[in-house]
Amino acid sequence: MTSNRKALEKELDRLSINKECNFARILSHLKKHFDEWCLGNLSREGYPDMKVGYMAFLMNIGSEGITNNELAKKIRVTKQAMSKTSKELQRLNLIALKPNPDDARSSLISLTDYGLKMVINARHKLNALTEQYIEVIGQKKYMETLDTMNKIIQIHFAIEDGVND
């Protein structure tokens, strides 16, 4: 083994010491468990074809509908991703496209009755999970956690916009 390899391994070990407090590791575990919880609940409720990627799309449509461009901007995805997901959700009868009364050049994405029931069901489940979180860690810590997470998201928005390069 070369001395360079030993130095690299030593640096790796030094950087890996605090595994329990590693933000990326904790975030990855939380996302994995949250995604599994979401998909498991949706499957049990009669939505077996759901994918995690569909949720941001569906949860941001609202009762009035939304244009493709507005939704893409809101959930920060490309037009290509929007088009692909839109087609998949139409195939699953979760969304429908209708003419936009404010702009004939665009369509409004709206939830079908089936999609509306799914979103309402998902929101009820999320509210119940939120109550569990609050029961375990308390309202104040829960709100502080959300505030901290939102501040971290703002850092990433600034990085993406080139503010903190």
What is the overall shape?
extended
Residues in helix, %: 55-70%
| Mean pLDDT over all positions | 90
Number of helices: 7
Our Rg estimate from Cα atoms comes to 21 Å
Structural class of the helices, strands and pairings?
mainly alpha
**Could you tell me how far the N terminus lies from the C terminus, measured between alpha carbons in angstroms?**
37 Å
Number of strands: 3
Structure characterization notes:
- The chain is mainly alpha-helical and 165 residues long.
- Helix content is 67%, strand content 7%.
- It has a three-stranded antiparallel sheet.
- Strand 2 (95-99) and strand 3 form a beta hairpin.
- The longest helix has 25 residues, at 113-137.
- It is extended.
Secondary structure topology:
Blueprint: H1 3-15, H2 23-44, H3 52-59, E1 66-67, H4 68-75, H5 79-91, E2 95-99, E3 107-111, H6 113-137, H7 139-160
Antiparallel strand pairs: 1-3, 2-3
Give a summary of the structure in a few sentences:
This protein is mainly alpha-helical and 165 residues long.
For the structure shown, list the relevant keywords.
single chain; 165 residues; mainly alpha; 3 strands
